[in-house]
Amino acid sequence: MVRPIGPSSEHTRSAILDMVRSSGTVSRIELAEMSGLTATSITRIVKSLIEDGLVIETGFGDSTGGKRRSLLELNPKAGFAVGISLDEGRLTYVVVDLGGDVIGRVVTAGIGKASPSAVLERIVEELEELFRELEVPRSQVLGVGVAGAGLDLGAGSRRLSTTADEWDEFAVQEILEARLGLPVVRDNDAACAALGQYWVGRIPATQDFCTLYMSNGFGLGLVSGGRVARGASSNVGEIGHVIIDVDGPACWCGASGCLEMLAAPRAIVRRALGDPELTKELELSGEDAALRRDYDALARAAASGEERSLALVRESARYVAAAVLSTVNVLDLDRLHLSGPGFDDAGPIYAQAISDLVSRHARARAVHGVDVVLSDPGFDAAAVGAAALALQHVLTPHARNPRIAPMRASA
User: Where in the sequence of the chain do the CATH 3.30.420.40 domains occur?
Assistant: First the structure.
């Protein structure tokens, strides 16, 4: 169990735990150097983390002439967290250990047009079955994270979405907490994917980066100082509504020429439907319910070198690269991760287009480069990130963002 501690020491303790997480293995002396705390303070904090089972000693470092330093690392078996990715076509569940490694995964039917209450009832049943299959004791589950576009983020904030419908203001957290008896936290899929990269990739809190997430649309998760950036209404990262062409097609958000209207899967499929031969060859239906299947067929064809499909995806990639270039210039980024199901097959095409444009035109290109990394395409990225969100809220409270409602353990 996680030790209850007073507010004066909570942030210090959690910051040290986060340093252990990001370091992989680290000595007490190195923790003192990184944190600026005294050796005595580090010894006391590490002792409490070891007593709670969160940190373990894993051996000794190389000798430097004196006593060999004992090495510390996060204890991955000290507990588990659940991540759930909500999507129209599928629900993805993952159970991870404290290190973020997936120990179990299941995919079931998506939310479709079902009501939120019906979907949440099914989620409870499917989670119970997953716990039984993995033989994970409920007492060792620290929390549940939920990722999805348009979810209510708490504190009166909303993330607007054309596909969210009833989910925008539905009390996902409260209902799941009451039904599961576990703490629950939720966020949008792009933010979760970014946080998952931070936790699983052992990225230190001193390194800022972005994750571009593509599903039916685009989202951008920005991690700065170990926290996901929020903004005034928790809507940071709406890169899909960066205007690429002021005279472009009208967008549902009220603007014109948004990235989503020019480069998202729906836009690519729409252009492909204008080619009767390609439509027939790839068996594109053009129906809303088949959007993901149509796009995946085009992406696979583009990845295999089919010229017409490749031209369509490259056009989309050029628009995306332009939006990313502006983001890189505004935020002075040196690292960008590409994640989400939209990059499953065509990810390398997008990564190349972004890298080429940014390397040529980024404002700070003479000072530093920008690494564009195709990290974890697919739905697992958001689900693992949702689990990481739960871990962060429990284990490293210093990194919590005050705009997200805190997790509450149900009675």
Answer: 79-187+381-399, 207-378
Mean pLDDT of 355-382: 91
Instruction: Choose between 288 and 273: higher pLDDT.
Output: 273
Q: 10 Å Cβ neighbour count for 378? A: 17
Torsion of CA 131, 405, 187, 14, to 10 degrees: -70
Q: Model confidence over 7-40: pLDDT tens digits?
A: 447 788 988 998 998 888 999 999 999 989 999 9
CATH class of the structural domain 7-77: mainly alpha
Q: Can you give the pLDDT at residue 166? A: 66
Kindly list the strands in the beta sheet with 218-224, ordered across the sheet, starting from the edge strand earlier in the chain: 227-228, 218-224, 209-214, 335-340, 371-377
Residue pLDDT, tens place only, 100-113? 889 999 999 988 87
Residue 405 predicted with pLDDT over 50? no
> How many angstroms separate the most distant Cα atoms in the chain?
76
In which band, very low, low, confident or very high, does the pLDDT at 162 lie, cut at 50, 70 and 90?
very low
The three-state (H, E, C) secondary structure of the chain, written as one string = CCCCCCHHHHHHHHHHHHHHHHHCCEEHHHHHHHHCCCHHHHHHHHHHHHHCCCEEEEEECCCCCCCCCEEEEECHHHCEEEEEEECCCEEEEEEEECCCCEEEEEEEECCCCCCHHHHHHHHHHHHHHHHHHHCCCHHHEEEEEEECCCCCCECCECCCCCCCHHHHHCCHHHHHHHHHCCCEEEECHHHHHHHHHHHHCCCCCCCCEEEEEECCCEEEEEEECCEECCCCCCCCCCHHHCECCCCCCECCCCCECEHHHHHCHHHHHHHHCCCHHHHHHHCCCCCHHHHHHHHHHHHHHHHCCCHHHHHHHHHHHHHHHHHHHHHHHHHCCCEEEEEEHHHCCCHHHHHHHHHHHHHHHCCCCCCCCCEEEEEEECCHHHHHHHHHHHHHHHHCHHHCCCCCCCCCCCC
Does residue 374 carry a pLDDT above 70? yes
Q: Please give the CATH topology (third level) of the domain spanning 79-187+381-399.
A: Nucleotidyltransferase; domain 5 (3.30.420)
Q: What is the pLDDT of residues 172-190, one digit of tens each?
A: 888 899 999 999 998 888 9
- What separation in angstroms does the CA of 289 have from each of 117, 163, 292, 388? 21, 12, 8, 31
CATH code 3.40.190.150 for 207-378? no
AA identity, residue 167: W
